[in-house]
Amino acid sequence: MKQRFTLTLALMLALVTVLSACGSKSNTNNGASPSGSASSEPVEVTLAGWGSSPEEQALLQQVLDEFQAKNPDVKVKYEVIADQYMDVIKTRLIGNEAPDVFYLDAFEAPALIEKDVLEPLDSYVTPEFDTADFETPMLDAFKSADGKIYGFPKDSSTLALFYNKKMFSDAGIDAAPATWDELLAASEKLTKKNGKKVEVYGFGQAPELARQMFMINAFGGKLADDQGKATFASPEAEKGLALVIDQHTKAQTAGQPSDVGAGWGGEMFGQQKAAMVLEGNWAIPYIQSNFPDVDFGTAEVPTVNGKKGTMAFTVAYVMNKNSKKKEAAWKLLSYLTGKEGMKTWTSKGFALPTRKSVAAELGYDKDPIRGALVAGGSYATSWQAGTTLPTIMNNFNNQFVAAYSGQSTLSDALKKGQDTANKEIEAAK
Amino acid sequence: MAKPNVKRMWRDAVSGYSFMTPAILIIGGFLLLPIAYAIFLSFHKVNLLGTVSYKFTGTANFERMLDDPRLWIALRNTVKYALIVVPSQTILALVLAAILNMKLKYRNFFRVAFYLPTVTSSAVLVLIFMWIYNKNGLLNYFLEMVGLPTYNWLGDPSVALIGIMIMNIWSTAPLFMVIYLAALQDIPESLYEAAEIDGANGWKKFWRITVPQLKPVTFYVVVMGIIGTFQLFDQSYIFSAGSGGPNNATLTMVLLIYQYAFKSLDMGYASALAFLLAVVIMLITVIQRLIFKEEKLN
């Protein structure tokens, strides 16, 4: 029962240290497995990632099968971590039970790189692997301060404006908004109210930092400084974020998914409770398979303050520093992020390739729906900001919701969030 | 003379302790040792990920609490939660038990039916309630039907904690109801008969006989209720996906400990917070004991 929680916690703390003590002993004989040994037993490499749609899972399995067919000496054990991915990975890293190769979001990368639990990959790279082929900002997200590469991006996505074509033609709007003012005007026309209750929002928003960071940058604000301190309570940042808040609290032409009983933006859009949303690549197969009747188009995110902006999310494959099968792990990692593996993985459009050659071959820049997402890649703000981002994000989100629900003014909320975040960052040093 | 005695004492001691060994090992290994270790950790700055290190920092972790705004939010939420949930669930449990103790038709069916929420896993309960609390969900549907205002129960910071309160009262009250029910059977029937002869009505009998007779049980129920509410974790964890949001509205003490321990991997500070929570719960229990004892004397 819950009464036992403190006890269990104490127990876990004890267990964790015991495990880590065991771990440090076995670390001493770390290193690659003896290569070139003539054993016919295949080496088993574990690969871990978070769960995704069944279609994506099947596609990944296909890539893994192809890899194993080409490398009979390596056997891949694929694990799905269903919930709280980073908590599980960190705990398993401490206990020296971590998988050999695993997914890592760019947003968590600086912290893990700093803790020195990932294997630097520079020494494994061969000329055929062609590092220069990767999109530079995506690769930079997994580099340490001294320029070592700790992970290769497997795919990425930016945000684009999804709009419901039928609602647009019903409201007499013929083109997707290109500027934020046009977006506000269009939202006005698209919002449908029943008395005081909004039934369809013109624009569906996600009041969280991961989706709004580019709004902070739009007028020259910055999320954090070089020391990792939060700096988002500036007038410049407020100006951008006010566009989000005011549209919800004042104009009431925008709402969040939970306002209409949806779980996230893609669902809100699919259920036709929002005429426009900013979503990424992941929403395309979701809407197409769950809401086939919704006729939608995409466009680049409308310009704010005359400048283009959007968010970019990247995930890489990284190698565990304490892996005992580094040779085989690299074989897997280099196949998955190599030209061949990435081509299969991104062939169905669930995710966009991070290699220029693969992107050119698959031609997503000319795809009517994915073109807008590809175009965003050149000016997107990467979802990353140093090792303190998790703390900053937690405090920003909490306070931003307060402003979003009208409980406090935006400037008070930002100030409070920044102070709390900086206090916490200072205390954790 | 004394020799055989000593020998016998030894033999007794050896056999006694060997019988107790399993219990000592389990309690020592899984209760005392972890507690001692948590106290040890709370005076250290611990780094587990990467190079493992323990740095003695004295009372730094405890000083940090004073300046941690999120701790005060968590404490305030937890106290608010306990102040509303404990009395409500105790009264509800008592009333339900009193009703089920009457000679009703299908009494056993109701006893089982009322107990069901307690048997259900709390994770499942939360997920079902989140569906009920959905903006277009069941609860808002009923509120709208009777002309009351509707809320965004999951997203609005001002009502999110109330949502968890309702859920928890509903799911824990039956557990205490069973305890009350057992205690009610123990009240001698003669007391009620005597009161009836004196002309007491149903309400008076309940207020003057049932409630005072149940006092020791009430003490138990309130103490367990407070411990349970102070350790609220699973509901708010699932409700907010581990963040304690919206706007820290569902951030509880244990959730905060969890966040520091497993999200920030700051085991030292998390242990210090767990220590604080244990002290707070102990203090409240001692105070309650004093209050209940004092009234006993009167």
From TrEMBL, chain A:
Residues 1-21 form the signal peptide. The keyword Signal applies. One of its GO terms (cellular component) is ATP-binding cassette (ABC) transporter complex, substrate-binding subunit-containing. GO terms for biological process: maltodextrin transmembrane transport; maltose transport. Pfam families: SBP_bac_1. InterPro entries: SBP. Keywords: Signal, Transport. CDD domains: PBP2_UgpB. GO terms for molecular function: maltose binding. It comes from the Bacteria. The keyword Signal applies. Gene3D superfamilies: Periplasmic binding protein-like II (3.40.190.10). Belongs to the bacterial solute-binding protein 1 family. This is ABC transporter substrate-binding protein. It comes from Cohnella endophytica. The lineage of its organism: Bacteria, Bacillati, Bacillota, Bacilli, Bacillales.
From TrEMBL, chain B:
This is Sugar ABC transporter permease. GO terms for cellular component: plasma membrane. Keywords: Cell membrane, Membrane, Transmembrane, Transmembrane helix, Transport. It comes from Cohnella endophytica. The chain crosses the membrane at residues 21-43, 81-100, 112-133, 159-183, 214-233, 269-292. Belongs to the binding-protein-dependent transport system permease family. The keyword Transport applies. CDD domains: TM_PBP2.
